[in-house]
Amino acid sequence: MKLSIITPAFNEAVNLPLLHDRIAAVMARRQEEWEWIIVDDHSSDGTFGVVEELVLRDPRIRGVRLARNSGSHVAIACGLHLAAGDAAALLVSDLQDPPELIAQMLDRWQNGAQVVWAVRRQRPGQPQHKAFATVYYWMMRRLVGLAGMPARGADFFLIDRLVVDAFCRSADRNVSVFALITWLGFRQDSIEYDKQPRAHGRTGWTVARKVKLVVDSVVPFSDFPIRWCGYIGLGLMTLAGLVGVSALFLLPTLGAGLLLVTALVLGLSGLQLLALSVVGQYAWRAVDEARRRPAYSIEAVAGTRQPSRLG
User: How far apart (Å, rounded) are the C-alpha atoms in residues 32 and 27?
Assistant: First the structure.
């Protein structure tokens, strides 16, 4: 068994050597083969220089540097495409997620789970970050339809080779890695842990990146914004009809003219939203076909050997 550990890194020159020591200690106790893939997301400090030093010290480490800052999800996807292990674990470099949990996640994987989420019991940080996370995960579970996504969120996971291969067959360019893994399905399990405060450096998780995450999480997986345009449009047209009928009973008073204008505005607004929803449904289906995401993923095969490398 070989485990691929994937770490996206942006300005993490201080944290990477510390993380390496803890990973090496955990895997030494497991006595299993492993590799560590570090994806430098075009850091502005000496992160890649540290990666090169670590590679010279430990041949189990591989490092790549992206040509531009592309965001953590792109860096994670890059690492998953490079992974050669029978399973792959995501571990961020800020030391907020303890690498010691890898041992428990491997146990769950060896017991049959193909996706193991490390779910936060608590989330340290500012209230606005907690509020954003609460709303985001509620929306993903309730509105987008990814009910399997952990309710309190997860920044740390371990996935089977079959899940890695299914992920790599997806042609999505702008997508949430966590949402796509949830959407793929497979046998999922979770463990709980307490997220730790950041040890060194500052987070690159800006408001702009949060907004992009929401867009990348909703657009590829659900047409609910388009559908809600249609619902609101139908609601406005219904309201316009009620206001118009009320105006007829007030004729020829002055208030009747105002109500008729209001009904006309509401009716036209509702018609525009309804038309936008119809056009959006056609556009959604065209995008869904152009995305070339696999229509299904094979988890197991009966009657022949189980697939180990697909795609």
Answer: 7
- CA 36-40-42 angle, 5° bins: 175
Q: Is 189 helix (H, G, I), strand (E, B) or coil?
A: strand
Give the span between the Cα atoms of 88 and 86, in whole angstroms. 7
Average pLDDT over residues 252-257: 65
Peptide bond into 307 cis (omega under 30): no
Q: Phi and psi at residue 193, in whole multiples of 5°?
A: -155, 165
Q: What are phi and psi of 297, to 5 degrees?
A: -130, 135
Q: For the chain, how are helix, strand and coil distributed in percent, rounded to 5?
A: 50, 15, 35
Task: Give all strands (DSSP E) within the chain, no chain letters.
Answer: 2-9, 33-40, 61-65, 87-90, 115-122, 156-160, 188-194
Cα–Cα distance measured from residue 245 to residue 305, given in angstroms and rounded to the nearest whole number: 69
Across 96-100, 125-129, 170-174, 210-214, which has the greatest mean pLDDT?
96-100
Q: What is the DSSP string of 173-187?
A: SS--HHHHHHHH-SS
- Cα distances (Å, whole numbers) of residue 263 to 78, 84, 239: 54, 63, 8
Segment 265-293 mean pLDDT: 74
CA separation for the pair 64, 121 (Å, rounded)? 32
The pTM of the full predicted model, rounded to 2 decimals, is 0.69
Handedness of CA 77, 82, 86, 89 (dihedral sign): negative
pLDDT per position as a tens digit, 143-194: 777 777 777 777 789 999 999 998 888 776 666 788 888 888 888 888 887 7
Residue 215 above 90 pLDDT?
no
Q: Name the residue with tokens 């996706």.
A: 115
